Amino acid sequence: MNLNLVPFGKANYTHAGENYTFNCHHGEKECMGNKVHACALKKIMDMDMQVKFINCVMTMNAEKKPEEYPTKMCANDVKLAADVTSQLESCATSNEGDALLAEFGDMTMKFQNPLKSVPSVTFTNEPNKDNAEATSNFRMALCSQIMDPKPAICNKNSASSYHSSLFLVPLTYFFTLKL
Length: 179
Prior knowledge:
Blueprint: E1 2-7, E2 12-16, E3 19-23, H1 28-43, H2 47-64, H3 71-77, H4 82-92, H5 95-111, E4 120-122, H6 131-136, H7 138-145, H8 161-168, E5 173-178
Parallel strand pairs: 4-5
Antiparallel strand pairs: 1-5, 2-3
Helix pairs in contact: 1-2, 1-4, 1-5, 2-3
């Protein structure tokens, strides 16, 4: 299974030379968060660590509303190596982060322009086909796409923290799963 996370949401951008200007649906803090997420997807090589880190920063932002974006706090919480944390911070405040976010913006606009719903979830790469069920019951929507034999998480009685962590991720994303 391939999970593609695309941090951009209902933003837009302009590009002149090496300079990018982003306008995010919920303001500058969302733009910074999207850059951190874009850099995390580039700099953190392990998908589970990517999901844990992004889940942490989104949860921390939503619950505690810190003054600074919680990059360091979450890097420590998920035990990212110090050099990776440094790379994330450097990337998010540089042209590299801008260019990465612009790439995700291009992907978003290619998927659906303008993006109609945040989060947007698709299993088929078709806008809005899977979105309603996936945003209300991600596990059930995902499991309906998996052929038998299904993993234990697809059991109706199965409780899983993975469901929770994956559900929080799409708050500012659209993502696609290829099974």
